[in-house]
Amino acid sequence: MHPQIDARTLKTWSHDGAELALLDVREHGQYGESHLFHGTPLPYSVLETEVARLVPRRSTRTVVYDDAGEAAGVAQRAAARLAALGYVDVSVLRGGTQGWAAAGYPLFAGVNLPSKTFGELAEKVYHTPRVSADRLAAMIARGEPVVVLDGRPVNEFRKMNIPTAICCPNGELPYRIRHLVPDDATPIVINCAGRTRSIIGAQTLINLGLPNPVYALENGTQGWYLADHALEHGGQRRYDDASGSAALKEQAEALARRFEVPFVDAGTVARWTDDSQRTLFLCDVRTPEEFARGSLPGAQHTPGGQLMQATDQFVGVRGARLVLLDDDGVRAPAVASWLRQMGHDASVLVGGLGSGLAIAPAVIPEPPPLARIGVQALAQLLRDGDAAVLDLRPSMQFRAAHIAGARWSIRPRLADALAGETRPVVLVADPPQAAEWAAAADWPATLPAPLLLEGGMKAWEHAGLPIEQSPALPADAECIDFLFFVHDRHDGNKEAARRYLAWETGLVAQLDAQELAAFRLPATALS
Does the predicted TM-score (pTM) go above 0.85? Predict the structure, then answer.
């Protein structure tokens, strides 16, 4: 059993200035229902494949938690797995979220809490101009020269967008705005699904000194829908890959320096890699396409807009060093200016992609391999009733399509799913490592080792073998990997959208003085 700490000790650690990895090891749906403000989501089902990326330094002070923190809980199992991977300073929060709440500390629903709370604070500090859905709709209807830019990634934009909107993720705005809006007079409206990226995107352009009138769309696509305006779906309008411009480079550098962003050379960063007391993240903030064409050794892809919006999906260590790079001198400084205000130790790599820096990448452990079975061999076993199929893919994928007769489960509940099973078991997983790690760490010793379906569900579908759909199975209560709270607002559920916006605007009021002090926003708006 791993060492436990109480809530008051963890609260002290959270604000003592030293590095801390605070890992919520429950599944995504459980995390989103109720978690600690600075808890980083690292579901137990993907722990081994994700932890090296989120917590690359294995001597980092680390705390894991679940609902109750008991010996039989997933936190203790996760702590044991981390120790097996070489993490040497791991504690478990006694009582988990229940113990935290019992000590008088708040729990939070939703995801990306620090970033979303920061967006609300930024709006209050900067008094970011905003435009209502009704006003924007009238401007568009009258044919007024307004440019609507959607600050979300392309995949989110395609789900739903404001009519006439062009997809330009927030991190790309400083680099591409002069191509998208070449004049100084056309009004610009930035939107996202809700509030945060609308606010940060608009304020980015304002902070850079863009002369155009710039507004955030109040409450984003949700506000548009709640005002009974029609959204488009499957949108294809996006920035041109060749549209980048260094026209705002001086402004971006000045903005970064205003917020005391260090500009560091490759030699300095190389020396930082030898610091055994600090964690280093080398963050390439360019687009997925640019990153795929090549980056610096040891860099991880952290698209700038999402690094600001969902920092906890890329960085699992509070107090770590973040070194940002690009190849234009515009995007990294602009993003770093926000990260510094969010309280992160963010720097910009001088020379970016051309700096020559090379650091060792995080080493992702490989699981013991499972023996494979082909689709036709499995189909024959199922026809003879000689195998059980356990599907470990996400619950919503299982609902959409699964092998006829398969059951759904997830790694933390694997033992329960296998209770009473006497047939050979075949696992379906994507990626296969999810099944291999589950089998290595959580497979009941009383059962023979499972087989893994070669090629997964795609191979089964390609072979034209029997498939089932189950829109209501697993039941909602069993889908611990899916956060209905977030997704329902995009499915035509106006009440869910209202609840989400109320949650978002109410975040700041839940913070205590220590949490508020961790942000570094200016006391008044920039003049």
Answer: yes
